Amino acid sequence: QAKKDQVMVNQGKISVAEGGVMSTIYDFDNTSEGYVKNDGTVYYYSNFNNDNIYDHSNNAKGSKAVFTHFENGTGAQNITGNQLSNFYDVVLDNSTKEMAFDLKNEMNVRGSVDFKDGIIKVDSLKGMLTFHQGAKALKPTDNSHAEGYVEKIGSEEFQYPKGDKGLYRYARITAPEHVKDAYEGKYNLDDKNFFRARNAKSGVINLLNEREYWTIDKGSDNSEGNIMLTLSWDERTTPKELLTDPEKELHIVRWDAKQQLWVDEGGVVDLAKKEITTPANVRGYGFFTLATVKTDLILDGDIVIYNLVTPDGDGKNDYFIIDNINKFPNNTVEIYNRWG
Fold this sequence. Notes:
Layout (H helix, E strand, L loop, with lengths): L6 E4 L2 E4 L4 E4 L2 E4 L4 E4 L2 E4 L3 E3 L2 E3 L8 E5 L8 E4 L4 E9 L7 E4 L1 E12 L2 E3 L5 E4 L4 E3 L7 E2 L2 E4 L4 E3 L2 E2 L2 E2 L2 E3 L8 E8 L2 H5 L8 E4 L3 E7 L10 E4 L13 H4 E7 L4 E4 L3 E3 L4 E3 L8 E8 L10 E2 L16 E2 L17
Pfam family, one: CHU_C
């Protein structure tokens, strides 16, 4: 049988009942006329494509899709399709290095993704891995995590199972206010051009981590809730000069697109976990990394007041900035001239 003919094609309706099991060693193609309802367990041993409806019953906790190879199978598995696919539990188990799963489909998860083995690469144009309210990312590691954008929708704390170049480097957000709030996250390692284009920093920042950065953005629905952010350091990626006194000096910083410079978001350090958390809700979204700060410029409450901000280097003051003033929502600012 020719390889191009080794496809399980659905042009009608497939229903897998709770407790039922189905598997295919061929590519699976749910065509534009096909409908799949999976309340049981389905094993996909090759590629997966969905061009119509792939779903499960509400709260179908027995629904599981397992993406793995049959016996001695090798190579990456493609997960594609023009229509979004709704999963409850997903198991990723493929030992192919660098990219085990190529996601070019909108994969919605409402139960869990079990990262057993293999990295899932989320295509920047056609892919999306979305964890809905209650969905969990189970046991991500260096060997198995998501590379590319991961979306979280819901009003609960979430740790993004993201990494880059074979390293798992998570970010965690606190629970947003609304169940429909959406946040997207991504991690990048060793992108020199990124930092070359973003080298300006506010005066309180001393040394910047230019090896890695995390992206946290609000979803396209313009979510209104706000979050606190937790990042971690790792001696394999975080420059050692940033870690001489992390409890005192290490902070989270954010690239402010309007001011075109890195700004301080503060930081509370957990040495045992090698984590750092913003002391209040972040003041903006986009790109984040770690940095050391000049502690002699920091007042009580991590407040920093700048007398001069000149990101373009012309010596003229462009902005009046008070870092971490958002920690004190009832503040007032009075400005006097030189004669009071």
